[in-house]
Amino acid sequence: MRLSSSQENAVLASPVVLFLLALLGFPVVLSVVYGFSEANFQALMSPTFVGLENFHLVLNDIGFWNAAWFSLRFAVITAFLECALGLFLAVYLAPLIRNHGWMVAVLIIPMIVAPAMMGLMYRLVLHEFAGPIPFYFYQWFGWSPSFLSAKTVFQTIIVVETLQWTPFAFLLFMAAYQAIPQEIREAASVDGTRPWRMFWKIELPQMLPTLFVAGFIRFIDGFRVFDNIYTLVGAGPGGSTTSMSIYIYETFLRRGEIGKAMAAAILLFLVAFLVLALGQYLMRRSQ
Questions:
Q1: Crossing angle of helices 258-286 and 204-223, rounded to 10°
Q2: How far is CA 142 from CA 81, 126, 137, in A?
């Protein structure tokens, strides 16, 4: 019997679907089970069902809300800075990149480095006593700033994250800027349109979908940030840099509260899912 095209597609895709279900389905189900159970490393194989108790503990934990507020601020600020700088570089450097394509490889070097390695690198460079930057600040200006203190650590990690991931936004905006038909620019130039007005009225509207996608991706990535912050300052002075991912990690491994950590992870997943659904809805509306 001959199969239809949809049936053939289903048969061909079934091995991949089964593999993903086996690879991802079991951890997800296990996380949900532990999220509704009292579990620790001593009783990992025999969790006790407690209903919504873990979610109640998480929602009444001030540390959870501090981590959520930190992640939200961090994600919004870094997404805005990365998109603004990436857009500026894509437009300002467009003539140079058109003639010297090798510059792209140089500009994306920070994005290639693993975030954990980037955090370790900045930890050495910014160390108050052994770091070269505080040393030269003292040599040249007579004062040695503490970049990783409680007062300045938030600004420091904002700069570190922005420097590493601005190249990602730059790549997207460069592709979108180069995809704008040259005929549109030529027609606007013939009409006497100034470059600044051409950017605001013609080029930027053409790039808005890419701008939305880049901002959305960087917001999600900033909200779930873990590795570079944890290797740079850990949870920070007084827990000032505890993101949602760090909160879940420390609740799980440091305190052994597996059920509470899984409940926080489920809440984080639900929030991310709602944000993703909202983003897709806004993208459809804009289109």
A1: 170
A2: 30, 16, 7
Contact 218, 169 (CB under 8 A): yes
Q: If residue 161 lies in a helix (H) or strand (E), which one and from where to where?
A: helix 153-179
| pLDDT per position as a tens digit, 212-225 | 889 888 998 888 88
Q: How confident is the model at residue 76 (pLDDT cuts 50, 70, 90)?
A: very high
Burial 261-274 (b: 16+ CB within 10 A, else e): bbbbbbbbeeeeee
Q: Quick one: 212 exposed, middle or buried, by C-beta within 10 A (0-12, 13-18, 19+)?
A: middle
List of residues 6+ apart from 102 with CB closer than 8 A: none
Instruction: Indicate if the pLDDT at residue 238 is higher than 60.
Output: yes
Task: Output the DSSP codes for 5-48.
Answer: HHHHHHHHHHHHHHHHIIIIIHHHHHHHHHHTEE--STTTTS-E
CATH number at 62-286: 1.10.3720.10
pLDDT attached to residue 287: 61
Report whether 107 contacts 235 (CB < 8 A): no
* Single pTM value for the model: 0.82
pLDDT at 86: 92
Compute the half-sphere exposure of residue 258: CA atoms within 13 Å on the CB side of its CA.
18
Per the listing, tokens 């058109």 go with 98
CA count, 13 A, side-chain hemisphere, 165:
27
Residue 160 one-letter amino acid: V
Cα 84-71-112 angle, rounded to 5 deg: 55
Tell me the pLDDT tens digit for each residue of 161-176.
Answer: 998 899 999 999 998 8
Alpha-carbon distance 12 to 46, whole Å? 39
